[in-house]
Design goal:
Strand order of the largest sheet: 3-4-7-5-6
Helix content: 25-40%
Structural class: alpha+beta
Radius of gyration: 19 Å
Largest sheet: 5 strands, antiparallel
Number of strands: 10
Shape: globular
Length: about 280
Amino acid sequence: MLPVSLDEAVAALAAMPAAVPVAGGTDLMAAVNAGLLRPAALVGLGRISEIRGWQYQDGHALLGAGLTHARMGRPDFAALIPALAAAARAAGPPQIRNAGTLGGNIATAAPTGDALPVLAALEAVLVIVGPGGSQREIPVSHLLAGRDMLRPGELIGFVRVPLLHAPQVFLKATGRTGPGRAVASVGLVLDPARRGVRCAIGAVAPMPLRPLEAEQWVASLIDWDGDRSLAPEALEAFGEYVAAACVPDQGQQVSAGVLHLRRTVAVLARRALGRALTS
């Protein structure tokens, strides 16, 4: 079925509880081809124009769940939410970026989803649409952590993201040169109004991890009324702090793989903060 509005899509899902919504299908088709999923029916979301753009709303951007990675990677979007645009450009080869969507990245919730650490760092909120025109909002982190799941007949309609007008960075490390799945990634944003640093590490756990103590510690060192510079030693310590929080020891013996991952996370966090502070 190919509905042309959110209301039609919700009605179709309510009428066919076993149906699976599909937008770009990049993750869905991979699961089908691998024999992991056999949907009884599909509800295509590609014709719903209301979720393929964005609008401004009370200091936030209300992003349609149908926004493709390719669209988010363009300069006008990058001027709005730079870290999310950078994540979209890193999402894979052109065929993936042209088809894959923001809502699909969230609903699939793959640990390596590039948009997820950025959305976690931005403390984005999902606008969930349901039967009878109902709407509810949940933090994206709650859905990714399984604390609040989509109910039958519900869809992710929009993503509300604060417009911070401040530096933000996305970086990722892959297992090979060029585009690829993240071994580790980081979304980092500065929030001068709240004198805060928000950081989320992706790909190292089933959901993005927020090193809250590291955020609070480094925010207390920044001269928010001055040049916001930090000594190299503080940047180094921040990276180590984040890495220790997000890649903890597993028992008394620390494997070479864990040590390498921890070093990777430390470097990403240090570089992301350094770039944000000098932007």
